[in-house]
Amino acid sequence: MRNFGFTTTKSRTIDYEKIDTRLISYILQNEPSFNACLSCGSCTAICSAGNLTSFNIRKLSLQIRLGDIENTKLEIDKCMLCGKCLLECPRGINTRNVIMLIKKGLNIIDKNEI
Amino acid sequence: MNTEAKKQIWSSYQKEIADNNYYYARSCIRQNFFPASEVTFLRILREELNKNIFDDPNHTTCTGIGYHSDIVPFDTIQTVVARHFALMTEAGLENVAISCVTSFGMYTEILDLWHHFPEQLEKIREYLYKATKREFNIPKNIAHTSDIIYKFRNEIAEKAKHKLINVQTGEPLNVVEHIGCHYAKMFPTKGVGGAEFPQVLSGMIESWGGNVVDYPERRHCCGFGFRNYLVQANRGYSVSNTKKKLESMKPYKPDFIVANCPGCAMFMDKWQYTLAEMEGVTYDEFGYGIPVLTYEEMAGLVLGYNPWDLGLQMHQVQCEPLLDKLGIKYDPKAKYLDKNGNQMPLPEKPSCLKV
Fold this sequence. Notes:
The complex is a heterodimer of chains A (about 110) and B (about 350).
Chain A: H1 22-30, H2 42-46, H3 48-52, H4 57-65, H5 69-76, H6 84-88, H7 95-110
Helix pairs in contact in A: 1-7, 5-7
Chain B: H1 3-11, E1 22-25, H2 30-33, H3 37-48, E2 53-55, H4 64-68, H5 74-90, E3 95-98, H6 101-116, H7 118-132, E4 141-144, H8 145-151, H9 153-158, E5 174-178, H10 181-184, H11 200-207, E6 211-212, H12 227-230, H13 235-249, E7 256-259, H14 262-279, E8 292-294, H15 295-302, H16 320-326
Parallel strand pairs in B: 1-2, 1-3, 3-4, 5-6, 5-7, 7-8
């Protein structure tokens, strides 16, 4: 393969027919309340980790729904599990459980168990 | 369905295209990339359609590429374009036929500016007079040369020697049409069909028997974008745009691509070689790539012109598979002969793309 001094970049087009749904399916199966999320961002606004780092739960929620496993892996360890988001959520979603399920789900995906 | 209302709406998407007596504004880059396209346009207009068109040796580049690359100031390009209008006025003509989509966009933009800011027009008149002692009239009609071929597509269809039909299967050829962004995305009223439904190429394809491919990234930019390729480090952006389009059209198995912009035709052709060398991918079933034609070349093939006179051998993706589909006879030995019958140097073969 020849090197011309430049490379192509991966398309950022989202193909809804090719989304990796393993993680979101696992979370919804174990925490159905996550389906009620309206992406209001209250969790992100109150987030202690978000004040100190680039952690953003609303963005994370979107990434999981779009099947972006790689970025989720990079982000998830920034959460300190303080639970303030859980108190703030207007839909009563157990967001701390969602975070725990993401961690568990990622481990299961790594082991190719789902 | 109220078809009358539809017709009325569609009429608002049409543009006026002059019928005869054109001043020809050549492109600077088309003469290098597709050296026979412009001469084919003149041949079609003069010999097939009996139109009067003046090909002026004093005409220069519009400096559009320099302008879009922030090298040529806006006042300078306006003065250059004003000089072209002066040449047109001196030739006693009122209609401009512009070969290049970049130039077409520039002429249109400048005329719009002068319409809204008459003081700028006066300033440019003064600049031109000081520099060249020339004066000019505003053209009555501005058309891209693809508009003119579109206008006379049915006359060309009547004289057609070949239809855009696969002679082996009897099926219409699948043709991808690509419209240059500066044709109608900047000033939608200046293009046939506007920015939403540009019909200038699809009208030709349908009139000449082909099938227009409607694919997801049909209206996506080809990736030319001036600064995107002028700086080597940025070329990845340009080639990625083209790759996106090629990947999107590949499942529809297009027989060829036709474009009305020099940059689009060049990059969709040449980047196929680059992508093949970089990533080992080709976008047809057999590894030859998808041929890319200009609309003059497509019209020339339909009219039965010799493919080597049309300059098809100068393209990166070779056209023989397409010529076989169209049932066009050609002499493989004459492919690289010059006009005096002397052998020209043969091009190197790519390592991946078949030729």
